[in-house]
Amino acid sequence: MFATYVHDLDPVLLPIHGGIALRWYGLAYLMGFVCGFLLLRNLARRKLWVLKPEQTGDFIAAAALFGVFVGGRLGYVFFYQIPKEGWAGIAADPLMVLRVWEGGMASHGGILGLAVFTWFYAWKHKVTWTGLGDGLCVVAPLGLFFGRVANFINGELYGRVTQGVAWAVKFPLSLAQEPREVQDAAWQECTAIEPKLARAESLDALVVVARDQPEVSKKLGEFLPDRHPSQLYEGLLEGALLFGILWWVRTRYPKAPDGLLTALFFFFYASFRIFGEQFREPDAELVGWLTKGQFFSLFMFLFAAGFFAHAWRGWKRGSLGPGGGA
Fold it and tell me: Please, which residues have CB within 8 angstroms of residue 193's CB and are 6 or more apart in sequence?
């Protein structure tokens, strides 16, 4: 039965006034930061993190602003937008870099942003960078999980075409991937049901109408192929499963050397991302036979190797537990 489901979830959770609204994507970020704060404070109280419990709130707030938002946005601009549109688009509208509400955040950029931010924070507060990063890496997958769920609700970053998968979904936004004749036929059939679509100028208008009118949604679904809900695959792998692994290691082995959890994060995130991307429709040009997500993930194995080496040296010299490394 799920193979016939035409995605009709509304990205807006609560309209407020005019164009202002509470969106699921914004709530996903909020949930990630709140859960991160609560869990890091719990680790700090149990002496499983290098910061004190009362420092957790300030750290999360600063990490959200300077790490996630700045890093994620700049990562999207440099990794995806500039390679696609060139520097001319930025030169013509430089303020677009600041308009995060229009969409465009890269998880790899957010991770790099957090790496830079934690290095500066550790230097300023005289704590070990690896010890600080270990705690952050434990809770970061929850933010990734909520973000992927929001991607699914938005109907974006959908999966590749599949056949015979019982839980496949038809994503209206994927109509843009279909041949022109298929798009025209879909518009004509849907317009016959809802005449006001004749005045619509974008696919977004068709998606909104289909969301509100089951007849239009059913007709549109006839022109859409079944696709993997890859957002949920990635959310479960990069988010829920990765969090479970890291939380288990942190609490089961409290004296694990500094850097080990960071190494595990980079290793498993890269592995899960590379695996999950094979089910996702590429949203940028391929790098050889790899998607950009897979290509950037390869570099994370190098980071993992470096942190594994650091953790090994800490274990050999007996510098164990949160804050025990350099």
Answer: 213, 215, 216, 219
Residue 20 β-bridge partners? 17
How would DSSP label each residue in 21-41?
A: EEEHHHHHHHHHHHHHHHHHH
Structure tokens at 2: 């799920």
- Asked whether residue 66 falls in the same domain as residue 139, the answer is yes
Average pLDDT of the residues of the chain: 89
The total of structural domains in the chain comes to: 2
Tens digits of residue pLDDT in 285-298 = 788 889 988 998 99
- Token representation of residue 205: 């208008």
CA separation for the pair 225, 3 (Å, rounded): 10
pLDDT one-digit tens code per residue, 123-162: 999 999 999 999 999 999 999 999 999 999 999 999 999 9
Instruction: Give yes or no: residues 264 and 213 share one domain.
Output: no
Q: What is the pLDDT of residues 46-71, one digit of tens each?
A: 999 999 999 999 999 999 888 888 88
| Predicted model pTM | 0.86
Q: Which of 257, 248, 188, 252 is nearest to 223 (CA)?
A: 188
Give residue 71's domain range: 21-161+229-316
Is 167 inside a domain boundary?
no
Same domain, 212 and 109: no
Same domain, 27 and 81: yes
Kindly state whether residues 205 and 121 are assigned to the same domain: no
In a domain, 270, yes or no: yes
* 226: nearest Cα among 6, 74, 75: 6
Can you tell me the distance from the alpha carbon of 2 to that of 172, in angstroms, rounded to the nearest whole number? 15
